[in-house]
Amino acid sequence: MFKVRQLEAFHAVMVAGTVTGAAVRLGLSQPAISTLIAGLESDLGFSLFVREKSRLQPTEEAKYLHGAVVGALQGLDGIAQLAADIRDAKAGSLRIAALPMLALEFLPRVAAHFLRDYPGVNVTLQARSSPTVVTLVTTQQFDIGFSETAYDPGWVDAEKLRLRCVCVLPAQHPLAGKDVIRPADLSGLPIVTAPRDHIRTQRLQELFAENGATLSIKVETPLFASMCAFVAEGVGYSIVDPVTAHDFSGRGLVARRFEPAFFNDFAMLFPAGKPRSLVTQAFVRLVAEFLKDYD
Question: What is the pTM of this model?
Answer without folding.
Answer: 0.67
